[in-house]
Structures are given as structure tokens and as C-alpha cells.
């Protein structure tokens, strides 16, 4: 039940009536009668100790992001919602979302604790899970969050890519083990194991990320203001069509133009998958109701803002899994030259002068360092010739709503940032001219020269340098040919680097993509989006007829990929760890 979303469900309600027992053997009926975390007062032992008003009204929440390569325990804080509402002097003070901070007293050192490897690696050694993996995170949380706040602090473990690949029975054992550990060794609030310790879908992860970046960028103020304006118009003239009143006429074409989006689109790329999420207009949402992910934001005044998102995750399209598929394709289709009894294949996606051996066979890849050729080869990985059951499709035969991204700004995290900034130093606003120019130079630079230039950069290892050319090509390909950012760059629906640069010069274009690592000095993590929705549950409804529970998402049917993803999805599985500057050195090192 943890890894398969049902069509159109609120996950809080999963199987709530099927059994009287929860995962931890507790009575579900009793659990439903328990006080919610926001109704629990701080520990009475120190409740009356002299403390500031700010401290007394501070609230905390914990999200554990359990990925395939590591787990991150994240601590968030905010002012108690009921206190904020009571102390507000102006009605407009509550016309916004709760303010969430990172860590305790906005101290970044208290924000997160990371531990490797990922929780999914304990599938065959669950007995070691508590001591090796969970204990360090719990100790960090116990010493960081004030003790008298523990029992009113909710904790959630949300597992992602690595856990999705495990057998469901193993998933259940790991999650239950983790839940029991935190229940036994802390007072942190866990209503029940099923909703607090779970595997989330790629679509949920993408939607959380969308909420996170938009919250950090604008606090959703443009969306809040638009909602207020439309609400006023509806109240004054309910019979009018709001959308007909707000459309814009393009002065050049005399046609109705799409309004500038009031939110940012979200792109995330990891080692195994890539995700896209963006807000749909009402008309597009109606046309694509089966693909819509629905969520609601809740303002402090209790008003809800319903949002329709398109969210899709593409397994096999993260950088490392794409590299694995690329090497597999390269060794099958490329002509080879036999030297020193080893079949050698030229690889334009490796730096010039490097030689690596493929893990799965005896092929040797010889770097030829040509970005343009690399882009042409990796573009086949998009599988755009696959049958499209429902038009239109962009990648792998997956249906995609007809959307004009021209007026939408996108923010990209994870590999969108790393591949742009770690070596090329071009993170931030997307400048295609500069990116292609620097990537071309990097790919063509001799391997030994590149190593000398970058190996002493903090956080950069040899493997990262070796894969930079491929990652740059993949980023360009997935952005423009994959998701169709700037379709004007295409010639006859084919992405050609030179043609794209020529077309770009003709355009009066302002970049609509930015790679980000932090926003306003805060980490752009999907976990922030998750805690925002959790805090929303504590906001009282505007009417007694409404529930104050805000379910995270109503999900569409999960999209599936035919590509099999290895468990080690954040490891470059296409080559040996060792690489060589000449073929003879490689041959001498490998026994015949």
C-alpha cells in the first residue's frame, strides 16, 4: 500500500475503515480520537518556566527525506497558528500563508542532519537500521528541538526513489521498524505509522517541490492577490465570466494572449528520474482532468486556494540513469575499432583524451569531447518516436497538456543546478549562448588539463569532472527538446545546436529558466512544501461546516515508465571508477 497511489485519493484516508489496527498494533479508532499535534500544549514540567512569548509560541516539525543515497532530517519552525490569529490586529495580516523558518531560531546549523547510505539499503539488514541509520538522526532532533516541545512536534518520514524500487513487503518492514523506533525512543508526535512513515510517489515529490520554490520566491502573493481580485468580482457580479474579463489582447497579432503566469514552474532532476510540475489554467485543467494533481493552499484566515497542477515524473531520465542507457545504446550501435584486443568506441560525451571501460562488457569508451555530437546522440534517449496513445506527447509516449511555456518562468533544482554551476559556474539565469560556449570548450579540453583545472575545487571529484560533458548535453536536451522550453529554437521539430543559436539571435527573448540551489538563502527542498501543507492542517476553517484538515493532494493515476531503474540510481553504473588518460595505461591495468 505504500508505493502505489490510487486514482484520486486523499492519502490521509487510506484504508482508514478496513481494520481496527494500525501498523503499530494500535487501535485506529482510538488514534482518530487523539488530540492533533497543534492541540497539544508544551510539556507542563517546564511550561511555567520564565520564557519569552516567542519561545512559548514556537512550533516545530520534522521531515525526514529518505532518498536512495542518503536520509536528511529537516527541522522547520513557525509561530503557533492560533497565537498568530489571536494577536493579529488587521484582517489583512492573515491574508497570507504561515511563515515557515529553517531550524530553531532561524539558525542554519540546526536545520538538517544527513546520513548515508540511504534507508533503502537496509532491506536485507533491517536489524542494523536503528543503530546505524536512525539513531544519529534522532539524537540530532532530540538535542536541537527544546525538550518541552517534543510531544507537540510532528515527525514524518517520506521515502522516495530508492524505496520505490524495493518489494512492498520490505518497504513495510523498514517503515514499521522506523516508526516503532521513534515511538519508543522519543515523544515526537506520531498519530499513526501509516500516515507519518510512508513512501511518496514521484508526483507527490514534484508537487511538494513546486510548492516549496513558489513559497520561497513569492510567498504565493501573486496567486493570493489574484484570488482576492477574482473573489471580489464574483461577489459583485457573480453572473459574469471572470476569465473573459481578464484576457489580454496582443497588440501585434490582435489575438488573445496568454496572461503571464502567477506562479513558477518546477523542474527537478536526480540520478534516476526527472520531474516537472506547473500550474494549469482553468480551461486546460478541464480538458486534462485525468492528469491533474489537485491541492489546496490555506491562508491564515482560513480561506483556501484550490490549485490544479500537472506533475509528471520520468524514471530513467535522471542524469545517471540516462548515462547508463546512453552507454548501453552506444555499445550496441556504434562502430568499433579493436586495439590491444579491446573493442574501442568513440564517445563524444566524454572529455577528449579519457578512456573508460564499460562495466557490463569489455568495451572501452574513448572520449572525443564534442558537445554538438553528444547532444545529437543523447536526444534519442527521449524516446520521442514511441507511440503516443493520447496526443500530445513530449517524452517516452507520455501525454502532456498543450501548454505555452513562453509566459511561464521555471526554476530547476538538483542536477539542473549542479550541472550548470559546479564546474561551468553558470548557475542562475539560463544563458544558452554562454552555456553552450563553455560546455563546448569543456568537452573539447584534454582530460588531464580538465582534471588539473577542477580537481581541487571543493566538492568536486574526478568522476564529477568526467561526466560534466554528458550532463551538460543532457540538460540542454531535456530542457529544450524534452520539455519544449523555447520551442522557437526548433527547426522542423528537431533540436540542432547551430540552428538553435541562430534562432535565438533572432528572438527578443528573456530567459524563462533559472537553476537554483537556494532561494533567499534558504535551501530549495521539496520537504518545505510538505511541511507547509502539514502546518495548513492547524489553521481553523472559515466556517464550522468545513473541516480544518487539508489533505495534501488528490493524485491522478500514477504515470509509469517502461525503463527499469537500478537500485543504485545515484551511482554512475556505466563505467568503472577508474579512468585513464591513454589506452595503453588502461590495457596494462586490466588482466587479460
TrEMBL record:
InterPro entries tied to this protein: GDA1_CD39_NTPase
Gene Ontology cellular-component terms listed: Golgi apparatus; membrane
Metal-binding recorded as keyword: no
Active site: 205
Top-level lineage group: Eukaryota
Pfam families in the record: GDA1_CD39
GO molecular function: ATP binding; GDP phosphatase activity; ribonucleoside triphosphate phosphatase activity; UDP phosphatase activity
GO biological process, one term: UDP catabolic process
Residues bound to ATP: 271-275
This protein's UniProt keywords: ATP-binding, Hydrolase, Nucleotide-binding
Family the entry assigns: Belongs to the GDA1/CD39 NTPase family.
Protein name from the UniProt record: Nucleoside phosphatase GDA1/CD39
